């Protein structure tokens, strides 16, 4: 772990990454790709120590409140967050200044900040996004080794439901020959239905591989799934988009179950939802600012 002073914290789309790198160890992680120009080891977390100061300045200067996103490139609830509390400090500012929040994570550490998530959602809108890829717990521990398993993430979703906080599940990626099965997808869908999720984001059954994350992924295949590396290479070569042979069947299943249970699964509609700020919600509370 090392510290830097960032020049800015919010992107043009009002997203923020408080850290760079990750310690979850997910074997498929696209953020390892060389196109993101990491100059340090991926597990050597870069900490933007001045992030709360930068965020407060940005929130003060905005003419109009909006949704603030975090977690797209780096999980805001890695182990280091327990000590550093950068995410919590930023959530406190988002709550104080009356902004909305769309947060994405794989970690149950988000429950530490349930008080702030509830407060933000009561005043404006808070959307918790949780990644679920692998229903089988033992397999999940291999694919996503250093973070809580899918069962625990489902429990987090249930807790959010109990507190009226809307949730969206990222059902991606699903790995060919590993978890691209009907049994796996049905298990995840059942969790989503039980947890009353607002939406399910699924870009198709498969994953993306490019320089940086491809090598790491193949190294893990060699370790945990002997022979699969060669099978991937024969079938996909150096393709960027790796589509499962089961894509059509499983995506049909996803769409049917979502339609049956009134779960939004249109990708464009969900991204619009993440950015939609409820102008009139909590107006009386916001007037205090």
Chain-wise SSE layout:
Layout: E1 2-4, E2 15-16, E3 19-20, E4 46-48, H1 51-61, E5 67-70, H2 81-84, H3 86-96, E6 100-105, H4 114-123, E7 126-131, H5 137-143, H6 150-162, E8 167-170, H7 182-194, E9 199-201, E10 206-208, H8 213-224, H9 228-236, E11 241-243, H10 247-260, H11 267-275, H12 283-287
Parallel strand pairs: 1-4, 2-5, 5-6, 6-7, 7-8, 8-9
Antiparallel strand pairs: 3-4, 10-11
Helix pairs in contact: 1-3, 3-4, 7-10
Q: How would a textbook summarize the main sheet?
A: 6 strands, parallel
Unreliable stretches, pLDDT < 50, 5 or more residues? 283-289
> Rg to the nearest angstrom?
19 Å
The spatial strand order of the largest sheet comes to: 2-5-6-7-8-9
The tally of beta strands, per DSSP, is 11
Question: Average pLDDT across residues?
Answer: 95
Rounded to the nearest angstrom, the distance between the terminal CA atoms is 36 Å
Q: Give the overall shape, derived from the CA principal axes.
A: globular
Share of residues in helices: 40-55%
């Amino acid at each position: 772990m090392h510290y830097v002073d960032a020049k800015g914290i919010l992107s043009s789309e009002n997203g923020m990454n408080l850290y760079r790198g990750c310690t979850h160890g997910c074997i498929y992680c696209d953020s390892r790709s060389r196109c993101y120009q990491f100059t340090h080891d991926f597990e050597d977390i870069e900490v933007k120590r001045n992030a709360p100061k930068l965020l407060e300045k940005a929130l003060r200067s905005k003419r109009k409140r909006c949704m603030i996103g975090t977690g797209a490139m780096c999980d805001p609830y890695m182990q280091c967050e327990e000590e550093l509390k950068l995410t919590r400090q930023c959530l406190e500012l988002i709550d104080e200044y009356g902004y909305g929040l769309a947060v994405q994570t794989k970690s149950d550490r988000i429950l530490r900040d349930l008080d702030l998530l509830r407060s933000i959602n009561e005043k404006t809108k808070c959307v918790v996004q949780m990644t679920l890829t692998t229903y089988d717990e033992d397999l999940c521990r291999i694919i996503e080794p250093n973070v809580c398993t899918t069962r625990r993430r489902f429990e987090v979703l249930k807790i959010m439901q109990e507190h009226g906080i809307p949730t969206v599940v990222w059902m991606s990626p699903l790995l060919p020959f590993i978890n691209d099965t009907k049994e796996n997808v049905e298990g995840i869908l059942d969790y989503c239905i039980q947890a009353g999720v607002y939406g399910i984001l699924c870009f198709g059954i498969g994953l993306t591989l490019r320089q940086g994350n491809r090598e790491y992924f193949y190294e893990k295949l060699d370790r945990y799934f002997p022979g699969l590396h060669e099978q991937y290479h024969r079938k996909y070569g150096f393709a960027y988009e790796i589509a499962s042979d089961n894509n059509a069947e499983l995506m049909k299943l996803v769409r049917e179950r979502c339609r049956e249970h009134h779960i939004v699964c249109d990708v464009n509609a969900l991204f619009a939802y993440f950015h939609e700020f409820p102008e009139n919600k909590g107006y009386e509370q916001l007037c205090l600012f």
